[in-house]
Design a protein that fits this description.
Elements: E1 34-39, E2 47-52, E3 55-58, H1 59-65, H2 70-77, H3 85-90, H4 92-106, H5 113-116, E4 120-122, E5 126-129, E6 137-140, H6 144-154, E7 170-172, E8 178-180, E9 182-185, E10 188-191, E11 201-204, E12 208-209, E13 212-218, H7 230-233, E14 237-244, E15 247-248, H8 249-255, E16 269-271, E17 276-277, E18 285-286, H9 304-309, E19 311-312, E20 315-321, H10 323-327, E21 333-339, H11 347-355, E22 366-368, H12 383-386, E23 394-395, E24 401-402, E25 410-419, E26 422-435
Parallel strand pairs: 6-22, 8-16, 9-26
Antiparallel strand pairs: 1-2, 1-5, 2-3, 3-4, 6-7, 10-11, 12-15, 13-14, 13-22, 14-16, 14-17, 18-19, 20-21, 20-25, 23-24, 25-26
Helix pairs in contact: 2-4
Bound molecules: manganese (II) ion.
Length: 439
Protein backbone atom coordinates (compact mmCIF):
# COMPACT_ATOMS: atom_id res chain seq x y z
CA UNK A 1 0.00 0.00 0.00
CA UNK A 2 1.06 3.60 -0.37
CA UNK A 3 -0.17 6.62 1.49
CA UNK A 4 -3.21 8.66 0.58
CA UNK A 5 -5.04 11.71 1.88
CA UNK A 6 -7.13 10.74 4.91
CA UNK A 7 -8.66 12.23 8.05
CA UNK A 8 -5.18 12.95 9.54
CA UNK A 9 -4.70 15.54 6.78
CA UNK A 10 -7.92 17.45 7.54
CA UNK A 11 -6.68 21.07 7.54
CA UNK A 12 -9.26 22.06 10.14
CA UNK A 13 -7.88 19.69 12.81
CA UNK A 14 -6.57 21.41 15.94
CA UNK A 15 -4.65 19.90 18.84
CA UNK A 16 -5.32 20.25 22.57
CA UNK A 17 -1.59 21.16 22.69
CA UNK A 18 -2.23 24.85 22.01
CA UNK A 19 1.27 25.60 20.68
CA UNK A 20 0.56 23.29 17.73
CA UNK A 21 -2.21 25.59 16.49
CA UNK A 22 -0.34 28.88 16.11
CA UNK A 23 0.19 28.63 12.36
CA UNK A 24 3.91 29.24 12.89
CA UNK A 25 4.80 25.95 14.62
CA UNK A 26 6.71 23.38 12.56
CA UNK A 27 4.66 20.68 14.21
CA UNK A 28 0.88 21.03 13.85
CA UNK A 29 -1.23 17.91 14.42
CA UNK A 30 -1.15 17.27 10.64
CA UNK A 31 2.65 16.69 10.84
CA UNK A 32 3.52 14.28 13.72
CA UNK A 33 7.24 13.69 12.94
CA UNK A 34 9.27 11.12 14.87
CA UNK A 35 12.57 11.60 16.71
CA UNK A 36 14.60 10.09 19.55
CA UNK A 37 15.13 12.23 22.65
CA UNK A 38 15.66 12.49 26.41
CA UNK A 39 15.66 15.33 28.92
CA UNK A 40 18.78 17.42 28.29
CA UNK A 41 21.65 16.71 30.66
CA UNK A 42 19.89 13.69 32.16
CA UNK A 43 21.01 10.08 32.29
CA UNK A 44 17.60 8.94 31.00
CA UNK A 45 17.48 6.44 28.15
CA UNK A 46 17.00 7.94 24.72
CA UNK A 47 13.56 6.92 23.43
CA UNK A 48 11.22 7.68 20.52
CA UNK A 49 8.91 10.65 20.63
CA UNK A 50 6.54 12.48 18.33
CA UNK A 51 6.64 16.28 18.05
CA UNK A 52 3.45 18.27 18.64
CA UNK A 53 3.71 22.07 18.86
CA UNK A 54 6.55 22.89 21.26
CA UNK A 55 6.19 19.53 23.06
CA UNK A 56 7.29 15.91 22.57
CA UNK A 57 4.96 13.03 23.33
CA UNK A 58 7.09 10.30 24.94
CA UNK A 59 6.20 7.22 22.88
CA UNK A 60 8.11 4.76 25.08
CA UNK A 61 6.08 5.92 28.09
CA UNK A 62 2.88 5.80 26.03
CA UNK A 63 3.73 2.28 24.82
CA UNK A 64 3.93 1.09 28.43
CA UNK A 65 0.28 2.16 28.92
CA UNK A 66 -0.94 0.18 25.85
CA UNK A 67 -3.67 2.64 24.81
CA UNK A 68 -4.01 1.44 21.19
CA UNK A 69 -5.24 -1.82 19.65
CA UNK A 70 -4.41 -3.68 16.45
CA UNK A 71 -1.73 -2.38 14.11
CA UNK A 72 -1.51 0.96 15.97
CA UNK A 73 -0.83 -0.94 19.19
CA UNK A 74 1.82 -3.09 17.46
CA UNK A 75 3.45 0.00 15.98
CA UNK A 76 3.46 1.79 19.33
CA UNK A 77 5.00 -1.28 21.00
CA UNK A 78 7.85 -0.97 18.46
CA UNK A 79 8.61 2.47 19.96
CA UNK A 80 9.70 1.08 23.34
CA UNK A 81 13.43 0.93 22.49
CA UNK A 82 16.11 3.53 21.85
CA UNK A 83 15.65 3.99 18.08
CA UNK A 84 12.97 4.01 15.39
CA UNK A 85 14.33 0.97 13.52
CA UNK A 86 11.68 -1.43 14.83
CA UNK A 87 8.88 0.93 13.82
CA UNK A 88 10.50 1.50 10.43
CA UNK A 89 10.68 -2.26 9.81
CA UNK A 90 6.91 -2.75 10.28
CA UNK A 91 5.87 -1.05 7.05
CA UNK A 92 3.33 1.40 5.74
CA UNK A 93 0.12 -0.17 7.12
CA UNK A 94 1.51 0.02 10.66
CA UNK A 95 2.89 3.56 10.21
CA UNK A 96 -0.50 4.73 8.95
CA UNK A 97 -2.35 3.06 11.82
CA UNK A 98 -0.08 4.69 14.42
CA UNK A 99 -0.36 8.09 12.75
CA UNK A 100 -4.16 7.84 12.81
CA UNK A 101 -4.20 6.78 16.48
CA UNK A 102 -1.79 9.58 17.48
CA UNK A 103 -3.79 12.13 15.47
CA UNK A 104 -7.00 11.08 17.23
CA UNK A 105 -5.27 11.14 20.65
CA UNK A 106 -3.75 14.59 20.16
CA UNK A 107 -6.64 16.44 18.54
CA UNK A 108 -9.06 18.68 20.42
CA UNK A 109 -11.63 16.76 22.44
CA UNK A 110 -9.57 13.53 22.59
CA UNK A 111 -10.69 11.12 25.30
CA UNK A 112 -7.04 10.15 25.92
CA UNK A 113 -5.93 13.71 26.78
CA UNK A 114 -5.85 13.20 30.56
CA UNK A 115 -3.76 10.05 30.20
CA UNK A 116 -1.38 11.54 27.63
CA UNK A 117 -0.80 15.06 28.93
CA UNK A 118 1.59 13.95 31.74
CA UNK A 119 3.74 12.19 29.09
CA UNK A 120 4.64 15.45 27.28
CA UNK A 121 8.20 16.82 27.50
CA UNK A 122 8.93 20.38 26.38
CA UNK A 123 11.22 20.50 23.34
CA UNK A 124 13.10 23.29 25.14
CA UNK A 125 14.09 20.75 27.83
CA UNK A 126 15.10 17.94 25.42
CA UNK A 127 18.24 16.72 23.70
CA UNK A 128 18.29 14.41 20.71
CA UNK A 129 20.26 11.62 19.16
CA UNK A 130 20.13 10.13 15.66
CA UNK A 131 16.57 8.85 15.22
CA UNK A 132 17.67 5.48 13.81
CA UNK A 133 20.66 3.18 13.89
CA UNK A 134 21.79 3.85 10.34
CA UNK A 135 23.23 0.68 8.85
CA UNK A 136 24.20 2.15 5.50
CA UNK A 137 24.35 5.66 4.12
CA UNK A 138 24.28 6.40 0.38
CA UNK A 139 24.63 9.90 -1.02
CA UNK A 140 23.18 10.73 -4.42
CA UNK A 141 23.78 13.72 -6.71
CA UNK A 142 20.29 14.51 -7.99
CA UNK A 143 20.46 18.25 -8.66
CA UNK A 144 21.53 18.79 -12.26
CA UNK A 145 22.11 22.45 -11.36
CA UNK A 146 24.60 21.45 -8.64
CA UNK A 147 26.24 18.79 -10.81
CA UNK A 148 26.71 21.29 -13.65
CA UNK A 149 28.04 24.11 -11.42
CA UNK A 150 30.48 21.82 -9.58
CA UNK A 151 31.48 19.95 -12.71
CA UNK A 152 32.37 23.28 -14.33
CA UNK A 153 34.86 24.00 -11.52
CA UNK A 154 36.53 20.58 -11.61
CA UNK A 155 36.28 20.11 -15.40
CA UNK A 156 35.60 23.47 -17.12
CA UNK A 157 35.38 21.93 -20.62
CA UNK A 158 33.24 18.96 -19.65
CA UNK A 159 31.00 19.85 -16.68
CA UNK A 160 28.28 17.21 -17.00
CA UNK A 161 29.50 13.70 -17.74
CA UNK A 162 27.40 11.75 -20.29
CA UNK A 163 26.03 9.24 -17.75
CA UNK A 164 24.43 11.97 -15.60
CA UNK A 165 21.14 12.18 -17.49
CA UNK A 166 20.63 8.40 -17.47
CA UNK A 167 21.88 7.11 -14.12
CA UNK A 168 21.03 8.51 -10.67
CA UNK A 169 24.67 9.04 -9.62
CA UNK A 170 25.58 8.09 -6.06
CA UNK A 171 28.29 6.70 -3.81
CA UNK A 172 28.34 4.76 -0.57
CA UNK A 173 29.10 7.08 2.32
CA UNK A 174 29.76 6.36 5.96
CA UNK A 175 27.02 5.90 8.57
CA UNK A 176 29.14 6.11 11.75
CA UNK A 177 29.66 9.87 11.46
CA UNK A 178 26.01 10.81 10.78
CA UNK A 179 24.46 12.59 13.78
CA UNK A 180 22.39 15.47 15.11
CA UNK A 181 23.59 18.84 16.45
CA UNK A 182 27.19 18.02 15.59
CA UNK A 183 30.23 20.04 16.73
CA UNK A 184 33.23 18.58 14.95
CA UNK A 185 36.86 19.52 14.42
CA UNK A 186 37.92 20.79 11.02
CA UNK A 187 39.21 17.76 9.10
CA UNK A 188 42.91 17.31 8.40
CA UNK A 189 44.23 15.59 5.31
CA UNK A 190 46.14 15.53 2.05
CA UNK A 191 45.57 18.11 -0.64
CA UNK A 192 46.89 18.62 -4.14
CA UNK A 193 50.63 19.38 -4.47
CA UNK A 194 51.51 23.01 -5.17
CA UNK A 195 52.94 21.86 -8.52
CA UNK A 196 52.34 18.69 -10.47
CA UNK A 197 54.72 15.90 -9.45
CA UNK A 198 55.56 17.43 -6.05
CA UNK A 199 54.67 16.05 -2.62
CA UNK A 200 51.03 16.65 -1.60
CA UNK A 201 50.33 19.22 1.07
CA UNK A 202 49.09 18.02 4.47
CA UNK A 203 47.17 19.96 7.11
CA UNK A 204 43.77 21.34 8.13
CA UNK A 205 41.20 21.64 5.34
CA UNK A 206 41.24 25.17 3.90
CA UNK A 207 38.07 24.84 1.81
CA UNK A 208 35.45 23.51 4.21
CA UNK A 209 31.89 23.61 2.89
CA UNK A 210 28.34 22.50 3.70
CA UNK A 211 25.85 20.79 1.35
CA UNK A 212 22.10 21.47 1.55
CA UNK A 213 20.40 18.08 1.24
CA UNK A 214 17.43 16.06 2.36
CA UNK A 215 17.81 12.58 3.85
CA UNK A 216 15.50 9.70 2.93
CA UNK A 217 15.00 7.12 5.70
CA UNK A 218 14.26 3.63 4.41
CA UNK A 219 11.46 1.78 6.20
CA UNK A 220 10.78 -1.83 5.29
CA UNK A 221 13.68 -3.19 3.24
CA UNK A 222 14.03 -5.80 0.48
CA UNK A 223 15.67 -9.20 0.38
CA UNK A 224 19.07 -9.36 -1.28
CA UNK A 225 18.62 -10.28 -4.92
CA UNK A 226 15.11 -8.82 -5.13
CA UNK A 227 14.48 -5.35 -6.45
CA UNK A 228 11.92 -2.79 -5.28
CA UNK A 229 9.98 -1.77 -8.40
CA UNK A 230 9.16 1.89 -8.93
CA UNK A 231 5.45 1.29 -8.26
CA UNK A 232 6.22 -0.09 -4.78
CA UNK A 233 9.06 2.27 -3.88
CA UNK A 234 6.91 4.76 -1.94
CA UNK A 235 5.79 2.13 0.54
CA UNK A 236 9.42 1.40 1.49
CA UNK A 237 10.18 5.00 2.53
CA UNK A 238 9.57 5.98 6.15
CA UNK A 239 10.19 9.71 5.85
CA UNK A 240 12.49 12.63 5.13
CA UNK A 241 14.90 14.63 7.30
CA UNK A 242 17.25 17.54 6.67
CA UNK A 243 20.86 16.58 5.88
CA UNK A 244 24.03 18.68 5.81
CA UNK A 245 26.78 16.74 4.02
CA UNK A 246 29.86 18.67 5.19
CA UNK A 247 32.53 18.58 2.49
CA UNK A 248 36.29 19.31 2.48
CA UNK A 249 36.68 20.61 -1.06
CA UNK A 250 40.49 20.69 -1.16
CA UNK A 251 40.74 17.11 0.15
CA UNK A 252 37.99 16.10 -2.31
CA UNK A 253 39.75 17.62 -5.32
CA UNK A 254 42.90 15.57 -4.65
CA UNK A 255 41.28 12.23 -3.69
CA UNK A 256 38.12 11.94 -5.81
CA UNK A 257 39.58 10.25 -8.88
CA UNK A 258 39.10 7.42 -9.69
CA UNK A 259 36.74 6.10 -6.97
CA UNK A 260 34.91 9.22 -5.77
CA UNK A 261 34.72 11.06 -2.45
CA UNK A 262 36.19 9.43 0.66
CA UNK A 263 37.77 11.35 3.58
CA UNK A 264 36.47 14.65 2.21
CA UNK A 265 32.95 13.59 3.19
CA UNK A 266 33.01 11.03 6.02
CA UNK A 267 34.12 13.12 9.03
CA UNK A 268 30.60 14.49 9.79
CA UNK A 269 27.09 14.58 8.29
CA UNK A 270 24.46 16.45 10.28
CA UNK A 271 20.78 15.48 10.14
CA UNK A 272 17.74 17.07 11.77
CA UNK A 273 16.45 15.25 14.87
CA UNK A 274 12.97 14.88 13.35
CA UNK A 275 11.84 12.62 10.50
CA UNK A 276 8.75 13.89 8.69
CA UNK A 277 6.81 10.88 7.43
CA UNK A 278 5.88 10.43 3.77
CA UNK A 279 2.25 10.32 4.87
CA UNK A 280 2.57 13.79 6.41
CA UNK A 281 4.09 14.97 3.11
CA UNK A 282 1.27 13.48 1.00
CA UNK A 283 -0.47 16.89 0.46
CA UNK A 284 2.80 18.29 -0.90
CA UNK A 285 3.37 15.77 -3.67
CA UNK A 286 3.66 17.36 -7.05
CA UNK A 287 4.45 16.66 -10.68
CA UNK A 288 7.91 15.36 -11.49
CA UNK A 289 9.08 16.95 -14.72
CA UNK A 290 11.82 16.03 -17.13
CA UNK A 291 12.75 18.57 -19.77
CA UNK A 292 11.64 17.38 -23.24
CA UNK A 293 15.15 18.10 -24.54
CA UNK A 294 16.65 15.64 -22.01
CA UNK A 295 16.62 11.85 -22.33
CA UNK A 296 13.53 10.30 -20.76
CA UNK A 297 14.23 7.78 -17.98
CA UNK A 298 14.62 4.08 -18.76
CA UNK A 299 11.40 2.09 -18.17
CA UNK A 300 12.38 0.88 -14.66
CA UNK A 301 12.61 4.55 -13.58
CA UNK A 302 9.44 5.78 -15.33
CA UNK A 303 5.70 5.56 -14.79
CA UNK A 304 2.70 7.79 -15.30
CA UNK A 305 2.01 7.84 -11.55
CA UNK A 306 5.62 8.82 -10.85
CA UNK A 307 5.38 11.70 -13.34
CA UNK A 308 2.10 12.89 -11.84
CA UNK A 309 3.14 12.86 -8.17
CA UNK A 310 6.76 11.75 -7.86
CA UNK A 311 8.18 15.07 -6.64
CA UNK A 312 7.72 16.81 -3.28
CA UNK A 313 7.37 20.55 -2.78
CA UNK A 314 9.78 21.12 0.13
CA UNK A 315 11.22 24.63 0.53
CA UNK A 316 14.65 24.75 2.20
CA UNK A 317 16.99 27.45 3.45
CA UNK A 318 20.57 27.60 4.70
CA UNK A 319 21.61 30.05 7.42
CA UNK A 320 24.95 30.88 9.02
CA UNK A 321 26.11 32.29 12.35
CA UNK A 322 29.74 33.04 13.20
CA UNK A 323 31.63 33.72 16.44
CA UNK A 324 31.39 37.42 15.60
CA UNK A 325 27.65 37.38 14.78
CA UNK A 326 26.78 35.47 17.94
CA UNK A 327 28.84 37.84 20.11
CA UNK A 328 27.01 40.77 18.49
CA UNK A 329 23.64 39.02 18.98
CA UNK A 330 22.94 39.20 15.23
CA UNK A 331 20.25 36.88 13.85
CA UNK A 332 21.42 34.03 11.56
CA UNK A 333 22.01 35.23 7.97
CA UNK A 334 20.40 33.34 5.11
CA UNK A 335 22.86 32.07 2.51
CA UNK A 336 20.36 30.59 0.06
CA UNK A 337 16.93 29.03 -0.50
CA UNK A 338 16.01 26.15 -2.76
CA UNK A 339 13.24 23.60 -3.40
CA UNK A 340 13.33 19.78 -3.55
CA UNK A 341 10.85 19.74 -6.45
CA UNK A 342 13.59 21.02 -8.80
CA UNK A 343 15.66 17.82 -8.45
CA UNK A 344 16.50 15.79 -11.56
CA UNK A 345 15.47 12.46 -9.95
CA UNK A 346 12.88 11.75 -7.26
CA UNK A 347 12.57 9.61 -4.11
CA UNK A 348 10.86 6.61 -5.72
CA UNK A 349 13.39 6.56 -8.58
CA UNK A 350 16.27 6.50 -6.09
CA UNK A 351 14.78 3.48 -4.26
CA UNK A 352 14.10 1.63 -7.54
CA UNK A 353 17.57 2.40 -8.85
CA UNK A 354 19.40 1.50 -5.63
CA UNK A 355 17.82 -1.97 -5.61
CA UNK A 356 17.69 -2.70 -9.37
CA UNK A 357 20.86 -4.82 -9.11
CA UNK A 358 19.55 -6.78 -6.12
CA UNK A 359 21.17 -4.60 -3.44
CA UNK A 360 19.21 -4.97 -0.19
CA UNK A 361 18.06 -1.87 1.67
CA UNK A 362 17.36 -2.22 5.39
CA UNK A 363 15.18 -0.35 7.91
CA UNK A 364 17.05 2.76 9.04
CA UNK A 365 19.25 3.07 5.96
CA UNK A 366 19.76 6.69 4.96
CA UNK A 367 19.87 7.99 1.38
CA UNK A 368 21.07 11.56 0.86
CA UNK A 369 19.65 13.44 -2.11
CA UNK A 370 22.90 15.23 -2.89
CA UNK A 371 23.16 19.01 -2.84
CA UNK A 372 19.78 20.46 -3.80
CA UNK A 373 20.79 23.55 -5.73
CA UNK A 374 17.99 25.18 -7.68
CA UNK A 375 18.06 26.67 -11.18
CA UNK A 376 18.94 30.20 -10.00
CA UNK A 377 22.47 31.16 -8.82
CA UNK A 378 20.92 32.40 -5.54
CA UNK A 379 19.58 28.86 -5.00
CA UNK A 380 23.02 27.26 -4.75
CA UNK A 381 23.23 24.66 -1.99
CA UNK A 382 26.94 25.01 -1.16
CA UNK A 383 29.56 27.72 -0.67
CA UNK A 384 31.57 26.19 -3.51
CA UNK A 385 28.80 27.39 -5.82
CA UNK A 386 27.84 30.62 -3.99
CA UNK A 387 31.46 31.84 -3.91
CA UNK A 388 32.30 30.41 -7.35
CA UNK A 389 35.03 28.19 -6.02
CA UNK A 390 36.15 30.82 -3.51
CA UNK A 391 36.68 33.56 -6.09
CA UNK A 392 33.67 35.68 -5.01
CA UNK A 393 33.31 35.52 -1.21
CA UNK A 394 29.78 35.87 0.16
CA UNK A 395 29.16 39.07 2.13
CA UNK A 396 27.45 38.64 5.49
CA UNK A 397 25.21 41.36 6.99
CA UNK A 398 27.54 41.95 9.96
CA UNK A 399 30.52 42.84 7.75
CA UNK A 400 32.34 39.51 7.43
CA UNK A 401 32.80 37.57 4.18
CA UNK A 402 33.03 33.83 3.55
CA UNK A 403 34.57 31.97 0.64
CA UNK A 404 34.59 28.79 2.77
CA UNK A 405 33.77 28.08 6.42
CA UNK A 406 35.86 29.41 9.31
CA UNK A 407 36.29 27.86 12.76
CA UNK A 408 33.30 28.69 14.95
CA UNK A 409 30.88 28.93 12.02
CA UNK A 410 27.49 27.31 12.55
CA UNK A 411 25.34 26.16 9.63
CA UNK A 412 21.59 25.83 10.18
CA UNK A 413 19.33 24.25 7.56
CA UNK A 414 15.55 24.52 7.77
CA UNK A 415 12.84 23.02 5.59
CA UNK A 416 9.09 23.51 5.33
CA UNK A 417 6.08 22.70 3.20
CA UNK A 418 3.67 25.53 2.52
CA UNK A 419 0.40 25.42 0.59
CA UNK A 420 -2.67 27.65 0.61
CA UNK A 421 -5.47 26.30 2.80
CA UNK A 422 -3.26 23.78 4.60
CA UNK A 423 -1.28 24.06 7.84
CA UNK A 424 2.45 24.69 7.39
CA UNK A 425 4.54 21.55 7.95
CA UNK A 426 8.10 22.11 9.21
CA UNK A 427 11.11 19.82 9.59
CA UNK A 428 12.73 21.59 12.55
CA UNK A 429 16.37 22.22 11.72
CA UNK A 430 19.78 20.67 11.38
CA UNK A 431 22.53 22.56 13.16
CA UNK A 432 26.28 21.92 13.10
CA UNK A 433 29.34 23.89 14.19
CA UNK A 434 32.94 23.80 12.96
CA UNK A 435 35.59 23.57 15.71
CA UNK A 436 39.33 24.17 15.22
CA UNK A 437 41.37 21.33 13.70
CA UNK A 438 43.14 18.93 16.03
CA UNK A 439 46.67 18.93 14.66
MN1 LIG B 1 26.58 15.35 -0.75
Amino acid sequence: MSTSINETHDPSLKSWVASANTGTSDFPVQNLPYGVFRRAGSQEAFRPGVAIGDQILDLAALAARKPFDGRAGEALAACAGDSLNALMALGQAHWSALRLALSRALREGAALRAEIEPLLVAQADAEYTAPARIGDYTDFYISVHHATAVGRQFRPDNPLLPNYKWVPIGYHGRASSVGVNQRFPRPVGQTRPAAEGETPQFGPCARLDYELELGIFVGAGNAQGERIPLAQADSHVFGLCILNDWSARDIQAWEYQPLGPFLSKNFASTISPWIVTMEALEPFRTQWKRDAADPQPLPYLASEANRERGAYDVQMEVLITTEKSRAAKQPPARLSRSNFRDAYWNVAQLIAHHTVNGCNLQPGDLLGTGTLSGPQPSEAGSLLELSQGGKSPVELPWGETRAFLQDGDQIIIRAECVKAGYPRIGFGESSGTVLPART
